[in-house]
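Database export, one record per block. Field names are fixed; values are copied verbatim from the stored entry.
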Amino acid sequence: MRARIIAENDTGSDMDALLLRSLQSYVIDTFGTPGWQEICCRANLTGETFEPMLRYDPGTADRIARVAAEVLGRSVDTIWEDVGTYLVTNPEREGVRRLLRFGGTTFADFLHSLEDLPGRARLAMPDLMVPEMTLQEVGPDRFELRSPSHLRGLQRVLVGLLTAMADDYG
């Protein structure tokens, strides 16, 4: 089964803060606090913590991911995909996996449920504006997922998340 994700960069999203906090948690849990401190220093940040309910300038998440890629010696795409995988597989982030598993008993059911994810996320966090998602079945066991967002990294986060969920579904 193959799923292709297309992030449309012409519309905005309020996901910057959540992705920044996820990136921060991923780096600290995977590479340690010194790695995160180096990223913050090189990015000329005034603090070392991103608050998920605050709003940050558009492009901040993508800028910090570029700095993280430089510091960690990985590509930006790899960093974002790893964040997506981290959100599903890290035991301290179990709530994300549980929320996603409400999508059905098979991976195909899960993919079809992604269009309902923004509404389910708003039940848990009413002010969170998760970008809408549309899924199109383009062939047998082939899907295309679209999600409008100004965040360039969102597409790669979704790839990591979907890969981890595919493993979770077996």
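Remark 1: The mean pLDDT is 85.
Remark 2: The beta strands are 2-8, 134-139, 142-148.
End of record.
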